[in-house]
């Protein structure tokens, strides 16, 4: 079968790989019909995630058709069309039972701190991902959800990560009616966090980025007040001034380790890899939020450490909330939002690319070319 | 310190009540620990475990685990020099910088092994294509020419330096 094949930082291609097989009685094999490239895939692509092995297939946002199920999978059968949450979760451990499906303790031998994630290095369990014609789906009786007849596959594929992560960013922010929410990053997650902040009753939604085309998009889609941080002398002073000197009620870091905006962080976090990615978005979030406020982190960082003003977290009495999205927990509500038209996921898709052109799609997305916001790979001709 | 003067209302200020779906999920009791404190049905540290996956490949396991998780990926088993380094890395916990630094080092060694693998199979990797040169050509031709010029200049400087050293 054809699959994306990581060859090293900034280098990917497609290769013929062996078909995945059922390795556990709760596995399924899914024929992939849509598979996105996620902003967090770019951390892998840039060589920032430890234990990313040459030959691995990325891809944790995918949907498709069940081809085969293991002996213990009773709720799915061959031919079902499913969307597959990016977290691999057993559904019965201490964490899954608390709704923390992104923190399952039975899916990743390599790290206790990280759950199992498709195609996200061996640090996240060593699973091949969905940027392929077929993919192995463990615990298939827990994660995959049948796609409703009325739902477009382009909407379904974005419910595997982007929509739940953006929604949980807003949920973790503990937004109260009338709150001012500042979001760092106008990538797909920041865009979705802006949309969802309103659902929780935000009074103002402010988004910072440095790419005008993305700011233009979120201005309409969120909607949101938008600012290019390169045109602002000091992001934190700007935020204080626009909130009567107090700061935002909540701040969301929707960027993670690839953040632009500070040469020091870029040098240490991205070029030298001496910290776990550039943490300037988190730095701004901590310093832009008001005393007693909440910082919600969904941007992805590596497992080592970052230079952030933790002293300000103490002195300001901040609450920091962070997690990989608990997709399974959130899906019922999110499907309802899509049906009611409150969230329009597929509007974010700017590029639909055959799997064979995966290298170009990665470069397009990473270099922010051609107005790219969300690229979707189409294996198997989308069928 | 004086409080900065308030900026005039931003021209793109939005009226919340006019936003589709405003407040439909507002939850005054949204607790900072949600959902971790939802302990209904929480089995504690002893839950009925899934069947254990069997494997014939080497699975590297964090020493912070009391037992191996039931299910795991087998995408790329450790092998070669990078595999030796990866195995060594797992002697230290996730809390150790050395653990992660060794894994990052193994990743870099693995890239060289990947090229060697290709060559051993009589395949010359098309590195420009793997780096998305076609997209760069289509959408950022000026940038592509700049990169080529910079790379060419760097190569010329290195060549000149080598030549001078030989003389």
Would you write up a description of this structure?
The complex is a heterodimer of chains A (383) and B (167). Chain A is 26% helix and 22% strand. By secondary structure, chain A is an alpha/beta fold. In chain A, strand 1 and strand 2 form a beta hairpin. Chain A is globular, with a radius of gyration of 20 Å. Chain B is an all-alpha fold and 167 residues long. Chain B has helices at 80-89, 97-120, 127-130, 133-139, 141-166. Chain B starts with 79 loop residues before the first helix and ends with a helix. At the A-B interface, strand 2, helix 4, helix 6, helix 10 and helix 11 of A face helix 2, helix 3 and helix 4 of B.
Layout of helices and strands, plus pairs?
The complex is a heterodimer of chains A (383) and B (167).
Chain A: E1 2-8, E2 11-16, E3 28-36, H1 41-45, E4 62-69, E5 81-84, E6 87-88, E7 116-117, E8 134-137, E9 145-146, H2 153-158, H3 162-172, E10 180-184, H4 188-199, E11 204-209, H5 212-221, E12 225-228, H6 235-241, E13 248-253, H7 263-271, H8 280-288, E14 289-297, H9 310-316, E15 319-322, H10 327-339, E16 351-354, H11 358-366, E17 375-378
Parallel strand pairs in A: 10-11, 10-13, 11-12, 13-14, 14-15, 16-17
Antiparallel strand pairs in A: 1-2, 3-4, 3-8, 3-17, 4-5, 5-9, 6-7
Chain B: H1 80-89, H2 97-120, H3 127-130, H4 133-139, H5 141-166
Brief descriptors of the model:
heterodimer; A: 383 residues; alpha/beta; Quinone Oxidoreductase, Chain A, domain 1; Rossmann fold; 2 domains; seven-stranded mixed beta sheet; six-stranded parallel beta sheet; 11 helices; 26% helix; B: 167 residues; mainly alpha; 5 helices; 43% helix
